[in-house]
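Quick one, tokens below:
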């Protein structure tokens, strides 16, 4: 009898559920819907004739058979990913793939990327914009730039730069540019997912709570464009302001800024630590960040320190 191998998508769904412990988080990790994960798991169980997942309260957990199978699938997928990377590297040894957040790609990286291309024609830079955290065991990426706490277990982590928030709006906004923080009560406050006004309110001496009304955007670059269009007042980030202040399409409403609780990091698997292409990209990033700082863009580069390797604190 010929053994029928289950579809790769179904195996990836099982591995993601085992890794994240949740259908929802597995769906986010694979950039698919919750229903797609459920469908893939059901098809996998039907094909194998074994129950792999069971209900556990409001969530799910793997059965004993599911745990054993998922552990083997994890190893197999990792080996397959390594084989694909090796083949791709041999086919195009000049390629360097970096995963970045869409907002950072649009507002910081892409306006500068021409300088990298011009200076390093021996490297084919492949930029992948995604809100999902890259999984280097399965995803086709060599490095990533992430915005967060810097806690990325199992990866080499290098602090690139800090960030800060300030209030910005179009100079042509209806009602004029607010003159005092308390004047913000008269304006639509633009909001972005996982970015909050309350710390700025507190620093400005306002006892206001986090806004619950007004336009809300998932991506920070969309929020900035809404501010340019005069749709409201934005809590802007120095890393994403681009040339909008210099070009006059946005203005700072007040001098006050507050540090972001998150920072930018370059992360990559230890297998890439000695990569010449990674070293070139790292040095270019840090040169660009230093140039911004020297030009008064408000970014503070990371201090020179060794990279944080897996297992180090």
């Amino acid at each position: 009898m010929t053994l029928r191998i289950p579809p790769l998508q179904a195996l990836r769904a099982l591995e993601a559920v085992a890794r994240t412990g949740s259908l929802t988080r597995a769906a986010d990790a694979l950039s698919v819907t919750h229903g797609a994960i459920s469908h893939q798991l059901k098809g996998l169980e039907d094909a194998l004739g074994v129950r792999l997942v069971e209900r556990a309260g409001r969530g799910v957990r793997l059965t004993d058979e599911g745990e054993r199978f998922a552990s083997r699938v994890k190893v197999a997928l990792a080996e397959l990913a390594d084989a694909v990377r090796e083949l791709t590297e041999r086919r195009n040894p000049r390629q360097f793939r970096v995963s970045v957040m869409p907002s950072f790609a649009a507002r910081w990286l892409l306006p500068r990327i021409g300088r990298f291309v011009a200076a390093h024609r021996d490297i084919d830079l492949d930029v992948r914009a995604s809100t999902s955290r890259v999984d280097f065991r399965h995803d086709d990426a060599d490095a990533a730039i992430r915005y967060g706490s810097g806690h990325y277990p199992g990866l080499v982590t290098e602090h690139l730069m800090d960030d800060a928030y300030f209030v910005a709006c179009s100079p042509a906004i209806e009602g004029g540019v607010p003159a005092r923080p308390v004047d913000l009560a008269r304006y639509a406050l633009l909001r972005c997912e996982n970015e909050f006004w309350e710390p700025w309110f507190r620093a400005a001496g306002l006892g206001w709570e986090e806004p619950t009304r007004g336009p809300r955007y998932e991506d920070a670059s969309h929020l900035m464009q809404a501010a340019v269009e005069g749709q409201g007042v934005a809590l802007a980030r120095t890393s994403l302001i681009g040339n909008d202040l210099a070009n006059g399409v946005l203005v700072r409403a007040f001098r006050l800024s507050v540090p972001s609780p998150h920072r930018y990091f370059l992360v990559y698997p230890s297998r890439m630590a000695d990569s010449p292409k990674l070293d070139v990209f790292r040095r270019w990033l840090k040169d660009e960040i230093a140039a911004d700082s020297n030009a008064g863009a408000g970014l503070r580069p990371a201090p020179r320190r060794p990279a944080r390797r897996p297992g180090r604190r």
